[in-house]
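HUMAN: Would you supply a protein with fold tokens?

ASSISTANT:
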Amino acid sequence: MAVPKALVRAGRAVSNSLYRVSGGRLMGKVRGMPVLLITVAGRRTGAKHTNPVLYLEDNGKYVVTGSGSGSAKEPQWFKNLRRTDQAEIEVGRRHLPVSVAVAEGAQRDLLWQQLLVRAPFFADYQKKVERQIPMAVLTPEPDDDVW
């Protein structure tokens, strides 16, 4: 049974609010993985949308994946991420403007393997879908001109 979009949006808004109010203490971990909030402009409207996303850190960068929990379709937030070179993330109470690079080829494969070491359940997501689950690297930037 599909969940109505309005209910999904309301749940996400509550989750985001709890994360922000608690500085990430609430809603800041899922299945042992840390969560950040990513804000990215919509590819059609330009309106900013914020989503909670699991991540792993890699040498001061943040790696996120568009698994959609094994959904056949790529998540909208990741589609938006593909169309931009900048976004903003919230990690706990820190707000960071980031540059965006979708990982390809060997880089994606290496990051995927690193993710599986920390969160083996992502392998189950990949088995559920025909698409290759994408990954992106978010690199913090100086906070003077992005948002």
Remarks:
- The longest strand covers residues 48-58.
